[in-house]
Amino acid sequence: MNLKQLSELLGLSQTTISRALNGYPEVNAQTRLRVLKAAQETGYRPNRAARRLATGKAGSIGLIMPIASEQSADIHFAEFQRGLADECLAHEFHFVIMPSQPDEEEQAIRGLVSSGSVDAYYLAYMRPRDSRIAMAKSLPTPFIVHGRSLGLAEDYPYVDVDNERAFREATELLLDLGHRRFALINGPADLDFAIRRQIGVEKALAARGLRLAPAAISNTLMTDASGYRQMETILRGEVRPTAVLCASTVLALGAVRAINQAGLVLGRDISLIAHDDDLMLLKPENFIVPLTTTGSSLRDAGRRIAERLITAVANPDADMPIAELWTAELVVRASTGRAPG
Amino acid sequence: MNLKQLSELLGLSQTTISRALNGYPEVNAQTRLRVLKAAQETGYRPNRAARRLATGKAGSIGLIMPIASEQSADIHFAEFQRGLADECLAHEFHFVIMPSQPDEEEQAIRGLVSSGSVDAYYLAYMRPRDSRIAMAKSLPTPFIVHGRSLGLAEDYPYVDVDNERAFREATELLLDLGHRRFALINGPADLDFAIRRQIGVEKALAARGLRLAPAAISNTLMTDASGYRQMETILRGEVRPTAVLCASTVLALGAVRAINQAGLVLGRDISLIAHDDDLMLLKPENFIVPLTTTGSSLRDAGRRIAERLITAVANPDADMPIAELWTAELVVRASTGRAPG
DNA sequence: AAACGCCTCCAAAGCGCTTTGAGTGGCAGG
DNA sequence: CCTGCCACTCAAAGCGCTTTGGAGGCGTTT
Hints:
Two copies of one chain form a homodimer. Chain A is an alpha/beta fold. Chain A has three domains: about 5-45, 434 Repressor (Amino-terminal Domain); about 60-160 and about 300-325, Rossmann fold, CATH 3.40.50; about 165-295, Rossmann fold (3-Layer(aba) Sandwich), CATH 3.40.50.
């Protein structure tokens, strides 16, 4: 069933039907009712491609799904996506996912945007001086960056968590508990958020005249297995740290396992703080020793980004708030205690 | 940059350009090269909406993302999606996600399909006598069901794991080890896969004259926290089971925690087998006591479904293999041992 | 009575692509 | 020299929608 058929059925012009359906004022209330009813009964849905062609908009936002071969379905990505979905549902948007190898992301975005598949899109997994930002700014399609890119002026729209601050505060907490030897189990070294977290730790330490030994820093995928492996390595080191910071509760899951297996007690022999993205799957309070965390909901971020994107599409001129920097909440639980000895 | 502009630039008709780009034979090799080069240089991409309007196809498959309010970003969904993405990437497809409340799924699919947003789609989270299947069959768009629907003739295209068999075999293994008291921590009670798994357990038990007490069955969301809660309840019961089956390694994560906390030793005091969807996030071999599992890769399922869908789109007449029933692999690790005392 | 304005509705153009049907020019065969 | 055929190219129609620029009818104003 298409517009033409519907118009013939009702003996009205396509114009009128279209207007009636889209809520334009220049149509008789009674006529509109007739149209609405017929549309309902026949199950008519405007063809989205046609609408897009005619209007340039079609109610969809785009995202690139990173597909590194070694990397797997990322729970963090999923949680974020869930936030997007919540918001999209409320506005009858859908989202288009274009999978892409990391080195072809720029290409992928170009494709998505210039083929007119999406009205707006978002960029994530930022690296320092990320070239995608310049590209995005040169394109007419609205976008938002999830995260930021070190080394670039912050003149692009973004939503980010203050990772540096979160990890600085977490480190300060541990310092105040008397800890002196630290380790950091971080995300991939080329990602902006990981770099900022490391900076946060380093700054807090530097303020007390301490520093993070290069050997005490590990960069890895955010999986349970890597968390385990890294922690194992750390525990085997010459000077065992008493305080560990983890970039994710998923990493912490493995890390805690390694700690237990080494016969150490979390919160007594070794303290740990993880960043908590508020994954439904894995709650820090449900760990055997509840985890002290820096928390910030990834899902909320997704929701907010979708919200801003949808607003931008609906309202192209209204200038949006550019920067949004969220503060992670430090929640103290049982995995942090006074430094031993 | 669009076709018209490109044609003016090259002094050729739009027809010729279109043919050159799409590999039709009736164009001079030299001309084709010129066109290809110009397209490359100008960054021309055909508008997807226009192409879809003209051809009826646009290279996208659709899926409904279930958004129950209590349910969260599901790692299983993510893992599956990753498989889809792998395959889509290889064929320059993208996928369109429409989030939907469970009770509006049918509506959501109708919208996605009749608005022409997708060339094909897949259905998942099947329930018994699921009405979506009849609907899908009545629509002209190709689809595949991930899973099956009990109570319906199997005359629709699907890819499923033989859940009943997997759980029957797992149960038999435990029976052979001398276990007599069983518990099942299963997924949501209304989902087909959960029902089949329960049937598998019951059949294996029945063959030895045993049955599963209603109190020994729990249905729950597939999260760490629920796994913990259910196992805790089970352990507090009057007759404590010695063998537990888990619908997911994620559930097992929590369940194992509860077992440890109760001071029991996994594989000795209590045996556990979990279904392993091959989540990268969570490997059964990485549990402190490596988990015995029934394994089947969700990602492979996603890949296969995308493959079949894409074939169906490219090749509408070729009739596809309807049914594909995969066998889960039983992998024995340390979490199963002889029944105690 | 003429003019104006408002309310409804419509015909037609146009979004960017694919595809049909119809030329062109060049060359071999009769 | 004419015809026929091949290789190549083009103009135009059409996909289903939105939107511009009227047009007709009717009540109100001057």
